[in-house]
Amino acid sequence: MTPLPPCPKCASEFTYEDGNLHICPECSHEWTPQAQADSPLLSRVVKDAYGNVLADGDTVTVIKDLKVKGSSSVVKVGTRVKNIRLADGDHDIDCKVDGFGAMGLKSEFVKKA
Q1: Quick check: is 52 in a domain?
Q2: Pair 65, 105 in one domain
Q3: Where is the Protein YjdM N-terminal domain (predicted)?
Q4: Does the residue 44 lie in any domain?
């Protein structure tokens, strides 16, 4: 038996099959396996350092001092970043940090506020 994929809407791991559909008991989302395979955006889930699912427009807090590449300055622990955008690549969050400007962050160094 192959494990079922997590829910593309809420990332719950408690999905089950009902005929041709996969169903999430937590958010009641229903989808076909083919629909998920056709849409890579739905299957990509970005989580913060504590496992919370992130989405565009969320506010996050930095959990570790982060050196800014090409500069001697540091983004301090506790810095709040508003209105994030999820992106593809190694740095999966695009945002504007007050005092630093636009930059990319890794989701493993933030928590959802």
Answers
A1: no
A2: yes
A3: 4-32
A4: no
